[in-house]
Structure formats: C-alpha cells, structure tokens
Amino acid sequence: MVEFANTVNPFYASRKKRDATRNEACDRPVYARLPQAPRNGSPVPHLTSLYHFHRAGNYGDRKWPGNCGGNLIKDLLNYFQPTMVFDPMTGSGTARDVCEEMGVACFSFDIHDGFDACDPHEFSSESTFDFIWAHPPYWRQKLYADDPRDLSRAPSLEEFLRRYGQFIRNCARALKPQGKLAILMGDYSDREAGYVPLTFHTKRLAFAAGLEQCCTDIIRFSHGASSSKKVYRSSFIPGLHDTCMIFERTNHCI
Ligand SMILES: C[S@@+](CC[C@H](N)C(=O)[O-])C[C@H]1O[C@@H](n2cnc3c(N)ncnc32)[C@H](O)[C@@H]1O
Q1: Which residue's CA is the closest to the ligand 1 atom numbered 24?
Q2: Which of 117, 206, 223, 228 is 20 to 30 A from 250, alpha carbon to alpha carbon?
Q3: What is the C-alpha separation between 90 and 186, in angstroms, rounded?
Q4: What's the whole-model pTM score?
Q5: Residues 202, 206, 211, CA angle at the centre, nearest 5°?
Q6: 97 CB under 6 A from ligand 1?
Q7: How far does residue 6's CA lie from ligand 1's centre (Å)?
Q8: Is the CA virtual torsion 11, 16, 17, 21 positive or negative?
Q9: Strand partners, 218
Q10: With contact defined as beta carbons under 8 Å apart, do 200 and 161 qualify?
Q11: How far is the CA of 123 from the centre of ligand 1 (A)?
C-alpha cells in the first residue's frame, strides 16, 4: 500500500495558519453568467473553453492527492473519438475508469507501479496512441511518491522543467500522426521560487517538442479543491482553475 508521507507543499505551510477570520460570504457559492457558445457541429456542444461542471463523476478515487474529475476526460474522448488511449501518470485511475466505461482501450501506468514517464526507455519506440491524457504533478505543490524519479520530487524548478520536457517528448513520440496529447496543468505559488507559470512552460516545452496546439485552452474551474476550504493570513489572488491544453503530433515532432 502506497503511503503519502506529505501531500502538502512543505514550502507553503505558513499560508495555512488558521487565525484569519473566516468570511461567511466566501462560503456561499457564487454564480457567474457564462458567455453563450456559438452553435456548431461539435458532438459535445457543452465542451467549451470554460469547464465549469462541479460533478467529478464516479471515476478514480477522490481521496487521491491531485485527483481530477472524469467528466472532462469523457467529454474529450467523445469529441476526439480515439481508439487507443494512454495515461502515463495514472494516479487513482480516473482516465482508465472513463475509458472502461466508454469501451475504449487504455494503457495506464504511474511511478507507483515503477513506471517512470520521464524516462525515454520506458516508452515503446512504436507510435501507438491516438490520445494521451496527462495530468502531471504541478511541480511540488503536492508530493506523490517517495521515489526520487517522481516529478514532484524534483529539487529545483530547472530540474523539474528538464524532466517535464523529456516527458512531453516521450509522449509526442508515442502518438500516431495527428494523435492528441491533452495535458492538465496549473500554475502555483512556491514559497522559494515564487509564482511558477507552469501552463506557460507546458506550451513552451510542447512546441519545442514539435507539437502544435490544436484547439482552445480549456479553463477547468477547480470545484472541490482542498485549498478552497483553507483560511490564509496572507493576501493573494486565489487561482481557481487549472488549464487543459491539447496538442497534436505533427511531422516535426522530435
Ligand atoms: C496529479 S496526479 C494524477 C491524478 C490522476 N489524474 C487522478 O485523477 O487520480 C500526478 C500523478 O503523477 C505521478 N507521477 C509523478 N511522477 C511520475 C513519473 N516520473 N512517472 C510516472 N508517474 C509519475 C504521481 O504518482 C501522481 O499519481
């Protein structure tokens, strides 16, 4: 049984002090009117650049640190209609469960199974998949495994980005031509490194790997994030979303 020694960013502990007064108004849901989406031929008309559905669906394990809901994955699979999916950072198996429900073939591994997605030798040389779902650690915002190969254990931002870049290149090579790589990533504030724009770095590294972005960013509202329930003494602008970026394999992939 895997044990998570520390799932909370250790560099962020000072923000967790609970002596700020809780504002009751903040506890109530806030409703915002979304812009109307143009009608089009999409098989998933509710899938737009704003992903605001608060139900996670019965996929994976909500208690797994960093678990993401399955409905966005399901909508993407319905949109792109892949036949062979890969999830190289499986966590609790959310994507695998969605694929099982939809009858789509899915390979899924995690560092907890001993599979290092940042090692090019772990990937077959065949271009096998037409869709890869990747939900990597947001650097050390949450720590996952004791294994030093766990991306969340990268000791510096530079080292994280070096290994993350290799991971993206591995995925690009594992895609069939025109195959899609969907990466869910979020920016975060690190006590030592400051604000870390990981979505920017994701695009930079994906483009450097020869991938092209094939549709809009999908801003996923972070309903149910554990940080939403915390009270912080310091002042900051809360980030309430992460971003799903979808890239396509081109002939330029390296
Ligand atoms: C954000 S979580 C994924 C959560 C998953 N989407 C879910 O819904 O349960 C990131 C996962 O990446 C895994 N991971 C970190 N470094 C890895 C590596 N080098 N190779 C494979 N998996 C890795 C972690 O163990 C963790 O389960």
Answers
A1: 144
A2: 117
A3: 17
A4: 0.90
A5: 150
A6: no
A7: 15
A8: positive
A9: 244
A10: no
A11: 16
What does the pLDDT look like over 120-130, one tens digit per residue?
A: 999 888 878 99
- Residue closest via CA to ligand 1's atom 16 equals 150
| pLDDT at residue 13 greater than cutoff 70 | no
- The domains found in the chain, sorted by start residue, are 42-226 (3.40.50)
Q: What percent of the chain clears pLDDT 90, i.e. is strictly above it?
A: 72
- Which tokens go with 227? 């940080």
H helices of the chain, in order, are: 24-27, 71-80, 94-102, 157-174, 198-208
Whether residue 4 is predicted with pLDDT greater than 50 in this model: the reply is no
Rounded Cα distance, 245 and 183, in Å: 5
CA of 136 relative to ligand 1 center, distance in Å: 5
Comparing 9 with 100, the larger pLDDT belongs to 100
Q: Which residue is associated with the tokens 């599979």? A: 115
Measured distance CA(76)–CA(84) in Å, rounded = 13
User: Separation of 106 CA from ligand 1 center, angstroms?
Assistant: 16
pLDDT of residue 67: 87
| Average pLDDT of the residues in 201-220 | 97
What phi and psi, each to the nearest 5 degrees, are found at residue 94? -60, -50
| Model confidence pLDDT, tens digit, residues 166-197 | 999 999 999 999 999 999 999 999 999 999 99
Contact 131, 182 (CB under 8 A): yes
